[in-house]
Specification:
Blueprint: H1 2-12, H2 15-22, E1 27-32, E2 34-36, E3 49-51, H3 52-65, E4 67-68, E5 85-91, H4 95-108, E6 112-116, H5 127-130, H6 140-149, H7 154-163, H8 180-187, E7 192-196, H9 209-224, E8 232-237, H10 245-251, E9 257-263, E10 267-268, E11 271-272, E12 279-283, H11 290-297
Helix pairs in contact: 1-11, 3-4, 3-11, 9-10
């Protein structure tokens, strides 16, 4: 509560807005995951599931300070002019994203890109949501074992959990990845595009390099199969935000650009802060208020 009061006071004082406007020609790539439709409850790893009303408030706040641009139009290394820019992205292709999230974006005429783990479309839910505790979190021991010992691989993690006597939770539709036909219908004739999140959403930094390269290639091959190629962008998002210099070099042979989950602004006053295949994003957790988002975009949080 204290934090939110402070955030509100800073916003009303105009400090974040002035700081953002002072960063003319800055570029941020926002990283969201799922949007929980009105009337539904968040489940799974709660940090990833923002409610629809709060997401709409984020968009309104963002429009006050940034021009919202399609991810595919960004050209790293160039120095744009005018207001700061923002590209909105989602990881994982949750059904909530392409229903409630797309509804809020379309209402405001805003574009966005969804990074798709194509090999998991239509599955019963991601391991991190199905193994989260009832309090909405994932224990560090479960996460560490899944990421480091099992490579973040969906089927290996769930099989190991069952072998250990854990029962993966059933999830409502909005907290599962969309199936392929539903996803493609949602982006047809829209301002929404699809990028690659590899094939099986494995930890590319935790599997052999040849497996990592296969995952990246299969994800991009799926993009090339889309009937409406205008809906595909030649971008990759590293699952879990994890990569290595070797993975990033391999990504250069697959995708035009690749992004992490965190790291802040991608471009500040004409200077792109990283190479094309390790571009940062501004991570937006579900609990972040619109005032908190302003502070984060201003580099104050």
């Amino acid at each position: 509560m204290v934090k939110r009061v402070v955030e509100r006071g800073l916003h009303l004082a105009g400090i974040p807005g002035r700081r953002i406007r002072g960063r003319s020609s800055g570029t941020v790539i926002l990283s969201y995951h799922n949007v929980v439709p009105r009337g539904e409850s968040p489940v799974g790893d709660r940090s990833l599931h923002i409610d629809q009303a709060r997401f709409g408030a984020h968009l309104d706040r963002l429009a006050d300070t940034h021009d919202i641009v399609p991810l595919g139009t960004l050209v790293p290394g160039t120095a744009p002019s005018g207001r700061p820019r923002a590209a909105i992205t989602f990881d994982d292709a949750y059904l909530g994203t392409i229903t409630a999230g797309f509804e809020e974006l379309a209402r405001r005429g805003m574009p966005a890109t969804v990074f798709v783990p194509a090999g998991l479309l239509g599955c019963e839910g991601f391991w991190w949501d199905r193994l989260a505790s009832t309090s909405g979190g994932l224990s560090p021991s479960v996460r560490d074992h899944a990421m480091e010992r099992l490579g973040g691989h969906q089927h290996r993690v769930l099989d190991h959990a069952v072998a250990e006597g854990r029962r993966p939770e059933a999830l409502p539709d909005h907290a599962r990845p969309a199936d392929e036909p539903t996803l493609l219908r949602a982006v047809a004739d829209s301002d929404f595009t699809l990028g690659s999140h590899t094939w099986h959403h494995v930890n590319l930094a935790g599997v052999p390099l040849d497996e990592a390269l296969t995952e990246m290639r299969r994800g991009h091959e799926w993009l090339r199969t889309l009937e409406n190629r205008e809906r595909a962008v030649d971008w990759l998002a590293y699952p879990y935000g994890h990569s290595t210099p070797e993975v990033e070099a391999a990504a250069g042979a697959v995708a035009r650009c690749a992004v992490r989950v965190e790291g802040g602004a991608a471009e500040v006053q004409g200077r792109w802060v990283a190479a094309d295949h390790r571009l940062p994003r501004v991570n937006v957790p579900a609990g972040l208020t619109s005032d908190g988002l302003s502070l984060r975009l201003a580099g104050l949080r």
